[in-house]
Amino acid sequence: MRSLSEPCLLWFTKGQGRITISGVTRGYTAHNAVFIPAGVMHAFEAGAQVFGSAVFFGRNSSVVLPKASLHLRIRDVHPQQEINVLLDSLSRELESDIPAHDRATEAYAGLIGVWLERQARKADVIEAPRPDATRRLVARYTALLERNFRTGMGVSDFAAALGVTSTHLTRCCNTACGRPASALLQDRRIFEARKLLAETKIPVGKIAEQLGFNSPAYFTRAFQHLTGKSPTAFRRAG
Fold first, then answer.
1. Strand pairing of 124-125 and 51-56?
2. Which of 24, 71, 98, 202 is most exposed, with minimal Cβ within 10 Å?
């Protein structure tokens, strides 16, 4: 489970798997486009047979993009070819140092935004299951989790804040995405830990404190359980 500070488009061209957005899990296949706004918690499986592209639009991009997440099935060959050409062109500009490549990059990103808007109107929109009480609760939980996963709150604290029992919250999470509430929370914290270990020099003990773990030892056990490496070994390998 993760959240990005910038909007992201995932374009899958091969393979299949599952993707979880705001606590609801559904399948994806080749020629699926998934748009995820900034700040929306999500996760997806990417096995050995999965291939595709990810476009990160930046925190301050002027590109016009959807306000809500989208999951589109692109059946027609022409729009499939169109997005592939746009992605190839964007990639070339990003790797180029010729004059005006930065403006060209922004222009291609804008065209991808246009493509996404047009496809949202005519492609098959893969809807999440009907937002019944269970899925509405899980969506509220994931939004609250995203805001507070660093505070040390446990599942019982989140459940109390949502006005339900932890047993009920866990049952709803299992129904909506096949994982208990505790797994979503721990996964989100460990993903953030991986980022901090890879991208900063903050001491391991300080990272544990920042992410609300009771002690560095507990953080180390939780990290090793999910990643197979201690925090120190993970940082050293990076």
1. unpaired
2. 98
Q: Judge whether 144 lies within some domain.
A: yes
pLDDT value at residue 129: 56
Enclosing domain of residue 209:
133-237
The mean pLDDT values, 10 residues at a time, for the chain of 238 residues are: 92 95 91 95 89 94 92 95 98 94 95 96 71 89 95 96 97 93 95 94 95 94 94 91
**Residue 110, Cα to own-chain centre: how many angstroms?**
21
Same domain as 117, residue 25: yes
- Rounded (10°) angle between helices 166-177 and 133-148: 100
98 part of a folded domain: yes
* Coil/strand/helix, residue 76: coil
3 in a structural domain: no
Please give the pLDDT value at position 138: 94
| Whether the Cβ atoms of residue 90 and residue 108 lie closer than 8 Å to each other | yes
Distance CA 183, CA 152 (A): 15
